UniProtKB/TrEMBL annotation:
It holds the Pfam family PMSR. This is Peptide methionine sulfoxide reductase MsrA. Belongs to the MsrA Met sulfoxide reductase family. Gene3D superfamilies: Peptide methionine sulphoxide reductase MsrA. It catalyses: L-methionyl-[protein] + [thioredoxin]-disulfide + H2O = L-methionyl-(S)-S-oxide-[protein] + [thioredoxin]-dithiol; [thioredoxin]-disulfide + L-methionine + H2O = L-methionine (S)-S-oxide + [thioredoxin]-dithiol. The keyword Oxidoreductase applies. The gene is msrA. Keywords: Oxidoreductase.
Length: 184
């Protein structure tokens, strides 16, 4: 789906390590309509946290983001995506290690694949090492368990939220504050 005036919303599926981080950031952006933490890349039988954590399911912890491109340009969303994790780190983000934590963009069409490839090329200039973000066909997405949805807002006292997600939110506020939802 393109960012044309006829399009009122668009859905993308992105993986940037643990889904709690990108989930929290996306929910703060203006124009975002829905955010779901999901598993994608594997089968229905293995689309659960216990199985995915083994790293043997082919799933990625991902986030499905539906947004209005008239309010949040796709380019800005992709800037937030690339800046919120290390896209040069293969199958890991910090202490989260395994293919389920890979950096990936799930493509719903050839047009979207080309758009995502162009974004990777554009953002490569910001990194000393090659971006290893994969472009994968979008298959079925499986909603993650309820406890993973909007985790940061529901469990801000958890160490992972305080030490990993809170600094990412502060960076979002500093660099993309004009794209954040109004407070209050």
């Amino acid at each position: 789906m393109s960012d044309t005036p006829e399009a009122t919303s668009r859905t993308v599926v992105l993986a940037a390590g643990c889904f709690w981080c990108l989930d929290s950031l996306a929910r703060r952006l203006q124009g975002v309509e829905t955010v779901r933490s999901v598993y994608t890349g594997g089968t229905a039988e293995t689309a659960n946290y216990s199985a995915v954590c083994t790293g043997m399911t082919s799933h990625a912890e991902a986030v499905e983001i539906t947004y209005d491109p008239a309010q949040l340009p796709t380019e800005v969303l992709l800037e937030v995506f690339f800046s919120s994790h290390d896209p040069t780190s293969l199958n890991r983000q910090g202490h989260d290690v395994g293919p389920q934590y890979r950096s990936a963009m799930f493509c719903a069409s050839e047009e979207e694949k080309a758009e995502f490839q162009e974004a990777i090329t554009r953002f490569q200039e910001h990194y000393d090492r090659p971006i290893v973000t994969t472009l994968e066909p979008l298959g079925t997405v499986y909603e993650a368990e309820p406890e993973h949805q909007d985790f940061h807002a529901r469990r801000p006292e958890v160490g992972y939220c305080q030490f990993i997600i809170d600094p990412k939110v502060a960076t979002l506020r500093r660099h993309w504050g004009r794209w954040m939802r109004p407070i209050g």
